[in-house]
């Protein structure tokens, strides 16, 4: 893997697009599902993201840049473990990760906290791999 300035634009492009897509997808799913429907909430986020991921994957093929995007379940679980407090004094309920999507129980509902991705950017002469965990706000 080579990190070079020629990848600054493609990796920033991927992060910007995914960040906007995650914001849109999670704002639609947050609060719409009860906690016992959390798997459906995570699936709804992934369904909403599908067209945006497909658009990124095909966005610069003509210019020789290829994006591969996949959900990163391990990064989501690690983010959950590092960012969701446990114990009796926590403000909100439990957190879970489901297929790269981190959710938390809040007042009986499902709140989407973050989505994790692996992104690989390939050009004719080089390749860059990154892991993004994008938080919702």
Would you mind describing this structure in some detail?
The protein is of the alpha+beta class and 137 residues long. The chain has one domain. The chain is built from 3 helices and 5 strands. Strands 1, 2, 3, 4 and 5 form a 5-stranded antiparallel sheet that branches. Residues 1-7 have low confidence and may be disordered.
Describe the structure concisely for a colleague.
The protein has 137 residues and is an alpha+beta fold. It has one domain. The chain has helices spanning 8-29, 38-58, 73-83, and strands at 66-71, 95-98, 101-106, 109-122, 127-135.
Approximate strand percentage: 25-35%
Number of domain units = 1
Query: Helical region count?
Result: 3
Low-confidence blocks of residues:
1-7
What Rg is obtained from the alpha carbons, in whole angstroms?
Answer: 16 Å
Strand-helix topology:
Elements: H1 8-29, H2 38-58, E1 66-71, H3 73-83, E2 95-98, E3 101-106, E4 109-122, E5 127-135
Antiparallel strand pairs: 1-4, 2-3, 3-4, 4-5
Helix pairs in contact: 1-2
List keywords for this structure.
137 residues; disordered N terminus; 3 helices; 5 strands; alpha+beta
């Amino acid at each position: 893997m080579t990190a070079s300035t020629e990848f600054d634009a493609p990796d920033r492009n991927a992060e910007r697009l995914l960040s906007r897509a995650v914001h849109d997808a999670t704002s639609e799913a947050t609060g719409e599902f009860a906690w016992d429907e959390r798997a459906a909430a995570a699936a709804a986020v992934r369904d909403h993201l599908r067209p945006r991921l497909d658009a990124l994957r095909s966005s610069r093929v003509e210019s020789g840049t290829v994006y591969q995007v996949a959900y990163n379940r391990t990064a989501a679980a690690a983010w959950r473990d590092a960012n969701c407090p446990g114990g009796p004094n926590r403000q909100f309920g439990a957190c879970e990760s489901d297929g790269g999507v981190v959710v938390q129980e809040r007042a009986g509902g499902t709140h989407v906290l973050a989505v994790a991705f692996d992104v690989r950017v390939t050009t004719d002469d080089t390749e860059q791999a990154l892991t993004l965990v994008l938080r919702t706000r």
